[in-house]
Amino acid sequence: MLLIHCPYCDQQRAEIEFAYAGEAHIARPLDPAAMSDEDWARYLFIRSNPRGRHHERWRHIHGCGRFFNAVRDTATDKFEATYQAGKPRR
Amino acid sequence: MSGLRLDHGGRMDRRRPVSFSFDGATYQGFAGDTLASALLANGVMLFGRSFKYHRPRGLLGAGSEEPNALVSVSRGPGRHTPNLRATGVEVYDGLVATSQHRWPSLKTDLGAINDRLGMFFPAGFYNKTFMWPRSFWDKLYEPVIRRMAGLGEAPSEEDPDHYAATYAHCDLLIVGAGPAGIDAALEASGTAKRVILIDEQDEAGGGALADPALWPWLQESLKDLAAAPNITVLRRTTAFGYYHDNFIGAVERLTDHLAQIGDGAREKLWRIRAGEVILAQGAIERPLVFAGNDVPGVMLASAARTYLHRYGVAVGKSVALVAAHDSGWQDVFALARAGVIVAAIIEVRDRVAAALLAEAEVLGIPVKLGHSVIDVHGRLAVKGITIARNDHSGAARITCDALLMAGGWTPCVHLWSHSKGSLAWDDALGAYVPDQPNEKVRCVGACSGKWNFGSGLVIDALPTPRDQHRIKAFVDFQNDVTAKDITLAVREGFKSIEHIKRYTTTGMATDQGKTSNLNGLQIASQALGRHVTEVGLTTFRPPYTPQTFGALAGHAKDDLFQPTRKTAIDGWAEEHGAVFELVAQWRRARYFPQAGEDMLAAVNRECRAVRSAVGIFDASTLGKIEVVGPDAAEFLNRMYTNPWKALEPGRCRYGLLLKEDGFITDDGVSARLAPDRFHLTTTTGGAARVLNTMEDYLQTEWPDLDVWLTSTTEQWAVIALQGPLARKLLEPLVAGIDLAGDAFPHMAIREGTVCGVPARLFRVSFTGELGFEINVPAAYGRALWERLMTDGAACGITPYGTEAMHVLRAEKGFIIVGQDTDGTVTPNDAGLDWAVGKKKPDFVGRRSLSRPDIVAPGRKQLVGLLTDDPAVVLEEGAQIVADPAQSIPMKMIGHVTSAYWSETLGRSIALALVAGGHARLGETLYLPMPGQVVRAKVSGMVFFDPAGARLNV
Question: Which of B579, B746, B864, B922 is the most exposed place for a label (fewest CB within 10 A)?
C-alpha cells in the first residue's frame, strides 16, 4: 500500500485515504462547441500510458477532500512529487 | 521403517507426551514436535503421493520449504485445512491428520499407474494430449485430470472460526529470528526504536535451533529481547508479502497448535508499516538432481541435522550422503557423533578440504570422492543406492535407509524480490543474492549470501552413465517436473525461463519452487548453452507460503462485509414485517406483506392504495447535496443539461446529469431555496459519485466559482406522501405553508414546520399522483412517520416499498438511471430531450451530443412494450428480435429494462431499449423465451395519465 503525500494537508498518509482520479493536466476545453469531432474525441478518450513518469490526479477523499496532482513512475510506483491543483506541471 | 527417536537430545518436552493420528493410525510424540518429526520418530517415511505420477514421497526438508509432505488437518465441522506442510504442523493431543491425493490408501495408490505411463506425461502433456475433440474436455478430460492430479480437498462447510486483523507501525521490522535476525534486534534493543521481530516457527532461533552449541547464547538473547520494552517478538507469524513503502503483510497463527481452541481468533493479520526492514530469512538448501532423488528417505542434509538436534530423531539407522557442498559433511559428522551409522559420503567433487577428510576418517566414515549417485533402490523407502565415478566407471551398491543431499544453498530472496530489490548472480554460490534495494531494507545473514557453511560445486544434474532421457531425476518435487521435462521444453523451442516455467510447471506449485527454481534454471541454462543470467529469473510473488482466505478476509464477511446503511424509519419497517432489499449500501423496504400475501399481492394492494387513497414511502435514501454560494446557479447550469439560472426560489426542477461523453449518469429533482442555495437530490446509489464529480469540476475546472457543496443525505429523513388524499392528511400538521394547489403547485418547495418540526416540503411526485416529500431532520423521521400513520388510518394510509414505487413510476414512464439506462444512453435515447437546455452554450456532456456516433440512426432508444397477451409479464433482461423465424444466432435488437404487472391498468407493462425504437411505435416485436416466443407491441413510455391530470390538483 503506497504512502502518498497530500500537498494540502502536508502529510504522508496511506493509500486507502486516497482515490485515483486519472491523468493530470488535461484541462476541459474552454469552448467545446468550437472543437472538431476528432479533437473532442481526443480530449474524451485518449490518454498517455507511459512506462515511467506519469502525471496523474489523486483526491484525498477520506482526508481534506482536495484533488491534487502527482508525478509517479509507473514502473517503480515511486512518487516523485505531489503538488496542488493549478500549480505548474512538474 | 527407519527413522527413530534417540534417547537423548532435541528441544521438545519429553515429559509431555502427546497422542495423535495420521491416516487413522495412532502415534505418540512430544510437545514441541512437528507432525513431520513425530512421524519420523515413529519410523514413518511415506507422507504423500506426488502430483502427476503418484510416486510415493517422504520428507525432503524440515521447514516451510517442504514440497512433498502435504497433509490435511481436521478438527471438526468446517475446520478442515488441506495442504499443510507436515514440517510446520505442531502436534497436540488429539491431532487428526491425513495424507492427500491417494486412493485407496497411501501405500497402495492405484494412481501410481501414471508412473509406469510416464512416457505419456511429458512437459506440456495437457496441451499436447487433450487438444481434441473439443467436446471431450468438459465430460472426460477435465474431470479425470482433476481427480488424478491435485492436492487436498477444499473444505465444503462454512468456516466457523473468526480472524482478527491489526495495523502496526514500527521503526524497524526484522523478518526471521535466526542468529542474524536476533543479533539485529539485540543491536536495536538499547535504542528508542520501536522494533518488531517476526518468525514463522513456534520457537525463535531459526538455524540455531539445530545447533546445540548456540543454545546457551539463544536462551540469553531471547531473555534480553523479552526484557527490552521496545521490542515485540511475534512467533508463528509468517511475513507473506512485502508491499510498497515498507508495508508488510504477516499472518500470526493463534490456535492451530492448541489442543483446545477457545473463542479467540484463529489467526491474526498484521499489516505492518515499517520505517526500515531487515530481512534475515536465511537460506534454503538445494536438492541434487539424479535418478530416484524423490524416494522416501532421500532428503536434504540440513533437514536431517534439524531432525537430529531439534527433535532428537535420527532419519535413518544407516545413512549415506551425496554432496556437492561442504555443509553436508558437517551434517553427517553430527549424525555420526550422535551414534547414527554413516554408510558413506559420496562427494561429487574430486577434492575437498583436508580437514573434512580427516574428520571423516576419525569418525570412520567411508568417503567416495569424484562419485555420484546413479540410482536409488526401494520404492516406499530407501533400501540402498548405486554409485559410480563421475566418468561412469566403477558402479557399486551401498546399503542404507536414508540418503542425504547437500547441493548448496539458495538465499531466501522472496520478500526482497517482492519489494522489487534487484538481484545479482553469484557464480560461486550458484545463486542470486540481493543487490540494490528499492525500499529502505537490507538483508543480513544467510539470505544476503553471507554464510559460513563452507564452499561447494554448482552443478545442474549429477553425472550418470544412464540415458538422461529415460530416468526420472526430479527438479520440482511438488509438481513432478523432471530434468528431462526441462530439456524437452528447450528442445521444443522455449527460450525464456518464464515460458519454460509455465510449459513445464516447474516452480508453479504451492511451494513456489523454494527448492527447485535454481536447479531448474541451471538445467535450462545448460540446455540452452547460455549463462544463467541470460536465461532470466522468474518473478517472486506473495504469498511466501500459502495463507488462509480467512486471515486475509478477516472480519470483512457476512454482515460485516460492508456497512449496511439504515434510515431513521428502518426500525419501523422491520417491526411491521417489511421485506428488505439492498440498494447500493442502503437497506430499503421492498414491500410490506400482510398475512397470507405474496409479493405480487402486497405490491398490488400498495399500488391500489396510492392510486385511490394515500401511500407513505420512506425516501430518505435519496442522495442529497446542499449547493450554496453566489455562483451556485451558474455551477448547476454548467453541470446539468437543464437551465437553472431562471429557476425561481421556491421552485423545483428535474435535473439530468451527463458525463462528458454525453451519456446519462444520474438524475433527480432539485429545488432552489434562495438565490444562492439549492437542495439537490440524486439517485440512491449515485450520491457519492455525483458529489465527487461535482467537487472535481469545482476544484479543478472552475475554481473561480464561489460555491460550496455539502452532502446532506443523512441529515434529512424524507417521507413521501403520495395519493389523492395526501393533501387532506398533511394539511392539519403543517404550519407556515399554504398547501392549496395554486399557492403550492406541483414542482414547488416551501419551508415551514410539520408537527412543529422544521421541514422542507417538496411538492413532487414519482408516482403520478398528488404528492409531497417531507424532509425533516433525520432524528424526527420516525416520530413524524408514526404520526402520519396514526392520522392517516382513517383514510386508509398504506406504507409502500420500493417494488410498488417501481411499478408506479413505470406506469408513468419515469426512468431509473442504472436500470433503464446502462451508461450508453443519451437524453435523446431515453426520450428526455425536453430536459436538455437547447439554448445553453455549454454543459457537461453537451459537445458529445453532436458526435457522429450519437446522432447516427439506429441507436438503442427507450420505448414502452405492451405484450399481446396482457397477462404475460416480460422478464427484465429478455432479448428482443424483429423476426422470430430467423435462424440462430438471431439478431438481437434490444432488451427489456423494466417489466411489471400494473394493477392500475390490469395488464403487464414494460420499458425496453430497442434499436431505432422511437421509429417503431406500433410495431410488433418478439421475445424468444424458454418454451414460447412472446409478442409485444412498441408503445410510448407513459402508460397512465399521460396528460398529468392527477398531478395538477
Answer: B922
3-state SS, B553-604, equals HCCCCHHHCCCCECCCCHHHHHHCCCEEEEECCEEEEEECCCCCCCHHHHHH
Choosing among B167, B243, B244, B270, which should be mutated to test the A contact, i.e. which has the most A CBs within 10 A?
B244
Residue pair B166/B191 in contact by the 8 Å Cβ criterion: no
Cell numbers representing residue B719 in the block? 417521507
Cα–Cα distance between A42 and A44 in angstroms, integer?
5
Return the residue of A nearest to B659 by Cα. Answer: A44
Domains of chain B with bracketed CATH: 4-115 (3.10.20.440), 164-280 (3.50.50.60), 284-408+451-458 (3.50.50.60), 467-544 (1.10.10.1100), 570-621+715-799 (3.30.1360.120), 623-711 (3.30.70.1400), 847-953 (2.40.30.110)
Q: What b/e readout covers B725-755, taking b as 16+ CB neighbours within 10 angstroms?
A: bbbebbeebbeebebeeeebeebbbbbeebb
Cell of B473: 531425476
ipTM of the complex: 0.98
* Beta-carbon contacts below 8 Å between A and B: 56
Would you call A40 an interface residue with chain B, using a CB distance cutoff of 8 Å?
yes
- Helical spans, DSSP H, in B737-801: 781-792
Residues 6+ apart with CB under 8 A from B877: B895, B896
**Chain B residue whose CA is closest to A22:** B696
CATH of A3-84, one of 3.20.20.80, 3.30.2270.10, 3.40.50.300, 1.10.10.10: 3.30.2270.10
- Rounded Cα distance, B415 and B540, in Å: 8
- Phi, then psi, of B47 in degrees rounded to 5: -115, -25
B197-232: per-residue pLDDT in tens? Answer: 999 999 999 999 999 999 999 999 999 999 999 999
Residue of chain A nearest B702, judged by CA positions: A28
Rounded Cα distance, B275 and B290, in Å: 45
Q: Kindly report, residue by residue over B643-664, the tens digit of the pLDDT.
A: 999 999 999 999 999 999 999 9
State whether B851 and A65 contact (CB < 8 Å). no
Select from A20, A28, A66 the residue whose CB has the most chain B CBs within 10 Å, as the one to mutate to test that interface: A28
- Cell numbers standing for residue B734: 403543517
Confidence of residue B1 (pLDDT cuts 50, 70, 90): very low
* A55 neighbourhood in chain B, CB within 8 Å: none
A44·B661 Cβ contact <8 A? yes
Distance from CA of B662 to the nearest CA of A (A): 10
Question: What distance in Å separates the CA atoms of residue B444 and residue B175, rounded to the nearest whole number?
Answer: 10
Which residue bears the cell 516523485?
Answer: A80
The interface residues of chain A toward chain B in range 52-71, judged by CB-CB distance below 8 A, are: 57, 59, 61, 65-67
Q: Which of B699, B847, B851 sits opposite A85 (nearest CB)?
A: B699
Start-to-end CA distance of chain B, whole Å, equals: 95
Quick: pLDDT tens for B16-37: 999 999 999 999 999 999 999 9
